[in-house]
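Okay, is this right?
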Amino acid sequence: MRVIPVDTSNAALMLGAVRPKVKDRQTGEIAVDRDSGTPLVLADVMFVLDGRAEMITVTVPETGISWESVFNGQSRHGIAYRATAVNAKAAR
């Protein structure tokens, strides 16, 4: 795989929709990482650099960790996602 270095120190990323990556639309089978067997998800990401914005879709292994905390008497909870890799998908 070719690696192209990009200076992202001034870049901004905004996460949009996250959805399962479907391997077979007829059966609804979800794609999995070939090494770990972890289900894959597609994430829409807006990448902003030097005043130009581009929407890209990335494929990442689904790793969700539920969390809950209490701060100033207010209970908060959610799911944190962690990726071991990010692969860009060509624009259509």
